[in-house]
Design goal:
By secondary structure, the chain is α/β, with parallel strands linked by helices. Among the domains are: 91 residues, 3-Layer(aba) Sandwich (Udp-n-acetylmuramoylalanyl-d-glutamate--2,6- Diaminopimelate Ligase, Chain: A, domain 1); 140 residues, UDP N-Acetylglucosamine Acyltransferase, domain 1. Helix content is 13%, strand content 26%. The chain contains four helices and 40 strands. A hairpin with a 6-residue loop joins strand 22 and strand 23. The longest helix is centred in the last third of the chain and has 22 residues. The chain is flat, with a radius of gyration of 25 Å. It starts with 12 loop residues before the first strand and ends with a helix.
Length: 343
C-alpha cells in the first residue's frame, strides 16, 4: 500500500468496472461485482488488492501471491494460485498502468496564488490556476486553466503554458510555448541560450540564440533536464514525448511524436528525431543527424551517423546491433590469437 501521507487513493472499484476501463477481460465474468481497494506488487498484495504479472521472471512470485486479483496474459493463467481472480490482457503492464491511475489520479490544482508569489499585472492566468510560494510569473506570460506552478518556479516573459500542466518546484521557463497536460519535474530548465558561438583565437564570439522551444501536449520531462532554445529555428519536442532525468537537448533539435529519451542521454544541436525514437541511458547523438522513425539506440552508445527508420544501433561508434557484436567477436578472436602467439 502506498504511504497515505504522500498519496491519495481513490476506489474501491469493482473488477467489472476495472476490466471495462482498462482493456482487460475477466477470466470468470461472474466475478465482475467483486471489489478491490488498492494495487500492490505480487509479493506485497493481499486479499482485496490487485496486482499484475508481466515479466515471466516473476512467475514464481505469482504462484505464491496472496492478491485478490491479478492482471496477466492469458498464457500465464494456468499458473494462478487458487482464489486469485484473473483479468486477462494482451498487455498486462499497460493495463496495470491504467488501473493504477484510477486508484491514484494525478493531483489537481488547488486554485489560488500564494501571498509570496510575484505575478506581473500583464500576466494572464486561466481559471483554477495554482501558484505556489515564491514563484514568479513575468509580464505577458499565459498560464492555461487548471495548471499548477510550483514553489520557486520562474515563468519568463511571454511564455505560454497550456491547460492542466503541472510545473514542479524550481523550474525555469523562458522563450517557450508549451502545450496542454505537460508535466515538468523539479529543476527542469527550458528555453535558455543554446551553445552557439563562433570560435576565434582572440575570444569566441557568441551567436545570439533567436529561436524558441515548442513542446507539444502530454509530454513529461524529468528532473534537472535542460532543453535549449533554437538559434534561429525553434527547438521542437513533439507531443507525447517522455524525457527522463538529467537529459540535455541542444538547440534546433526536433523530436517527433512519442520519443523516449532516458537518463543522462544527450542530443546535440540541429539533430532530427522521427516519431517514437528511443535513446537509452547515457547515449549521445552528434549534431546535424537524422534518426528515423522508430529507431532505437542502446545505452552508452555514441551515434555519429544517420540511423534509418526502424533500425537498432549500439556501441561507440554506434552500428547496427548485429554488426556491433560481430565486431566485438572479431576483436576477441584477434586478441585471443595474439595472446596464443605470444605464449
Amino acid at each position: 500500500m502506498a504511504d497515505p501521507r504522500f498519496f491519495e487513493r481513490a476506489g474501491p472499484f469493482t473488477l467489472g468496472e476495472l476490466a471495462e476501463r482498462c482493456g482487460t477481460r475477466l477470466a470468470d465474468p461472474a466475478m465482475a461485482a467483486c471489489t478491490v481497494d488498492d494495487v500492490a506488487t505480487l509479493d506485497q498484495a493481499g486479499p482485496g488488492q490487485l496486482t499484475f504479472l508481466d515479466n515471466p521472471k516473476y512467475t514464481d512470485a505469482f504462484a505464491q501471491t496472496k492478491a485478490g486479483a491479478c492482471i496477466l496474459h492469458e498464457k500465464h493463467a494456468a499458473l494462478a494460485p487458487a482464489g486469485v481472480i484473473l483479468l486477462l490482457s494482451p498487455k498486462p503492464y499497460l493495463s496495470y498502468a491504467r488501473v493504477a491511475q484510477l486508484f491514484y489520479p494525478a493531483p489537481k490544482a488547488v486554485p489560488g496564488i500564494h501571498p509570496t508569489a510575484v505575478v506581473e499585472p500583464t500576466a494572464r492566468l486561466g481559471d483554477g490556476v495554482s501558484v505556489a510560494a515564491h514563484a514568479v510569473i513575468e509580464a505577458g506570460a499565459e498560464i492555461g486553466a487548471g495548471s499548477m506552478v510550483g514553489a520557486g518556479t520562474v515563468i519568463g516573459r511571454n511564455v505560454v503554458l497550456g491547460k492542466e500542466c503541472r510545473i514542479s518546484a524550481q523550474v525555469t521557463l523562458s522563450h517557450c510555448l508549451i502545450g496542454d497536460r505537460v508535466l515538468l519535474h523539479p529543476g527542469v530548465r527550458i528555453g535558455q541560450d543554446g551553445f552557439g558561438f563562433a570560435p576565434d583565437p582572440a575570444g569566441h564570439v557568441k551567436v545570439p540564440q533567436l529561436g524558441r522551444v515548442q513542446i507539444g501536449s502530454d509530454c513529461e520531462i524529468g528532473a534537472n533536464s535542460t532543453i535549449d532554445r533554437g538559434a534561429g529555428p525553434d527547438t521542437v519536442i513533439g507531443p507525447g514525448c517522455w524525457i527522463d532525468n538529467l537529459v540535455q537537448i541542444g538547440h534546433n533539435v526536433t523530436m517527433g511524436r512519442g520519443c523516449i529519451v532516458i537518463a543522462q542521454a544527450g542530443v546535440a544541436g540541429s539533430t532530427q528525431l522521427g516519431d517514437f525514437v528511443v535513446l537509452a541511458a547515457q547515449s549521445g547523438v552528434a549534431g546535424h543527424l537524422k534518426i528515423g522513425t522508430g529507431a532505437r539506440v542502446g545505452a552508452k552508445s555514441g551515434v555519429m551517423t544517420d540511423i534509418p527508420a526502424g533500425e537498432s544501433h549500439f556501441g561507440i561508434p554506434a552500428a547496427r546491433v548485429k554488426e556491433y557484436f560481430r565486431q566485438v567477436a572479431t576483436l576477441r578472436r584477434l586478441a585471443q590469437k595474439k595472446g596464443a602467439d605470444n605464449e
